[in-house]
């Protein structure tokens, strides 16, 4: 039986088995603790009966007016626990919290090459809203999809009308800064 519970500071010393996956973005400790302090209700953990971390989701709420939304910063499941529906369970949790915060939609960024994740998000009702050029840095820059799912507050589904042209990271950053995103 899987238990969903809030992520704690102690979990930062136990979640390496989940973060070793090459598709998982790993951040510095200060980044995780900032989320724990600012958006604790959006940072949840799936735990096995033996106490092993199976996966986690880290998110936040941000934006202004009709751009008020839940955002998935990180979602990952340990390779040992994949294909059990844990990612969908964690996503549903974050969507429920976003609904309670009266968000219009939930969004996330995913590597364009991560076909398995894109398929899962599509099956959960997300659409590809736009492409962000060279979003992921590393040995080779990689584009990301900004995927979105409208929530009940967005009765006209305005938040999921896709952009037809890709945007750069700079354009995305400019948009976020000029719409009181954070």
From TrEMBL:
Recorded GO MF terms: protein N-terminal-methionine acetyltransferase activity
Pfam families, sorted: Acetyltransf_1 (PF00583)
Enzyme class: transferase
Cellular localisation: Cytoplasm; Nucleus
Family to which the UniProt record says this protein belongs: Belongs to the acetyltransferase family. ARD1 subfamily.
Reported function: Catalytic subunit of the NatB complex which catalyzes acetylation of the N-terminal methionine residues of peptides beginning with Met-Asp, Met-Glu, Met-Asn and Met-Gln. Proteins with cell cycle functions are overrepresented in the pool of NatB substrates. Required for maintaining the structure and function of actomyosin fibers and for proper cellular migration.
Protein name listed in UniProt: N-alpha-acetyltransferase 20
Organism: Stomoxys calcitrans (Stable fly)
Origin organism lineage: Eukaryota, Metazoa, Ecdysozoa, Arthropoda, Hexapoda
